[in-house]
Amino acid sequence: MFSSASFLKSSTVIEECPQDQKPEFAFIGRSNVGKSSLINALVNRKELAKTSSKPGKTKLINHFLIDEFWYLVDLPGYGYASVSKTERKSWIVMTERYLQERENLVCLFVLVDSRIPPQKIDLDFLNKLGEWGVPFQIVFTKSDKVKKTQRMGVLKNMQTQLAKTWSSMPDIHFTSSQSKIGLQQIADLITYYLSLIN
Ligand code: GDP
């Protein structure tokens, strides 16, 4: 999919993020959604993003340089119960500012667990993205755990929820880092966007 990937830096505020305007694609989702696994699978590296069952481990904006010309950004997971109010506030400030102000963000992939019905926290977050005008697509994770016959129902469920506040539907993808479902599709999408820029 992508041939080279290396960790570049962690940032706590947008001012610390790389200044060189390379196009970037960011990944976000609730803690434990399978974000690290998906990032690792996409770049075909076992441990580029740290996979961990400990909720809320990634609390920084992590930049990875891919194929020398674009950044993959691992954003801190949201919605973990075990953090303090102060930590949650700092997540909000860090992530909101990144999403609102980062000009070279091409697309945000919002990861949602395909095994569970749409959660309020995810829907609220998606609505905020709409308010801020952030370009995003929805990526269902762990689709290996959802039978093929059930996937249409999962998709419809999400669309029904979104239709309450959205007049048009974002793209929604099914993926699994375990069985590799949909990974090529995400890679192709990124490659397509990059082809428009370069
Ligand atoms: P993160 O907290 O969002 O970075 O999530 P992780 O990538 O650390 O994954 C959380 C848990 O979900 C781990 O136990 C993973 O093994 C599991 N997991 C991640 N991706 C998949 C997947 O595609 N399929 C299944 N069945 N489990 C997954």
If you had to describe this structure to a student in words, what would you say it looks like?
The protein has 198 residues and is an alpha/beta fold. The chain has a single domain (5-197), classed as Rossmann fold, CATH 3.40.50. It has helices spanning 35-42, 85-101, 120-132, 148-163, 183-197; strands at 5-11, 24-29, 61-66, 70-74, 105-113, 136-141, 172-174. Strands 1-3-4-2-5-6-7 form a 7-stranded mixed beta sheet, with helices on both faces. It starts with a strand and ends with a helix. Residues 29, 31-37, 51-53, 77, 141-142, 144-145, 176-178 line the site of guanosine-5'-diphosphate.
CATH class: Alpha Beta
Distance between the termini: 18 Å
The CATH superfamily title: P-loop containing nucleotide triphosphate hydrolases
Oligomer: single chain
Strand order of the largest sheet: 1-3-4-2-5-6-7
Helix content: 25-40%
Q: How many E-type strands?
A: 7
Return residue spans where pLDDT drops below 50 for at least 5 consecutive residues. none
Q: Fill in the CATH topology.
A: Rossmann fold
Please identify the structural class as seen in this structure: alpha/beta
What is the N-to-C succession of helices and strands? EEHEEHEHEHEH
Number of domains: 1
Tertiary shape = globular
Bound molecules: guanosine-5'-diphosphate
Q: Which percent range describes the beta-strand content?
A: 15-25%
CATH architecture: 3-Layer(aba) Sandwich
Biggest pleated-sheet summary = 7 strands, mixed
How confident is the prediction overall: mean pLDDT? 91
Estimated radius of gyration? 16 Å
